Amino acid sequence: MALDKPYLDVPGTTIFDAEQSRKGYHLNQFCMSLMKAENRKRFLADERAYLDEWPMTEEQKLSVLARDLNRCIAAGGNIYFLAKIGATDGKSFQQMAGSMTGLSEDEYRAMMIAGGRPAKGNRVIGSPL
After folding, report:
1. What is the pLDDT of residues 43-79, one digit of tens each?
2. What are the backbone angles phi and psi of residue 66, rounded to the nearest 5°?
3. Which of 20, 19, 13 is nearest to 124 (CA)?
4. For domain 16-90, is the CATH number 1.10.700.10?
5. Is 43 helix (H, G, I), strand (E, B) or coil?
6. Residue 93: phi, psi to the nearest 5?
7. What value does the mean pLDDT take over residues 95-106?
8. ∠ CA 11-84-119, rounded to 5°
9. What is the per-residue DSSP string for 14-38?
10. Taking the CB of residue 1, how many other CB atoms lie within 10 A of it?
11. SS3 state at 6
């Protein structure tokens, strides 16, 4: 029997729950492997070969290769694990978050300084905001 998930109606948001955790287990374990310098070096030397060592789905591998973090999240990735890909590429968390919103780093920074995303359109479906 499927669990009731009332939180699935938040537009543009993927909740990292138990189902997402199971779906992204190997993707997230790959990310954790990047905590070791020798693994980062191997990954950057031949990304596809390194990814092929992990029992990830093809979609997960292609998402990593494209550095499409939104696709990675949809494929079960957790942003705190995915941050290790950005760190491996020499990117800040701010740069990564900006790429996920379609904004430049400077635009993302300005939005966050101004108070973050606007509430309109970013709340539970059916809410007054």
Report:
1. 999 999 999 999 999 999 999 999 999 999 999 999 9
2. -80, -10
3. 13
4. yes
5. helix
6. -60, -35
7. 84
8. 20
9. ----HHHHHHTHHHHHHHHHTTSHH
10. 3
11. helix
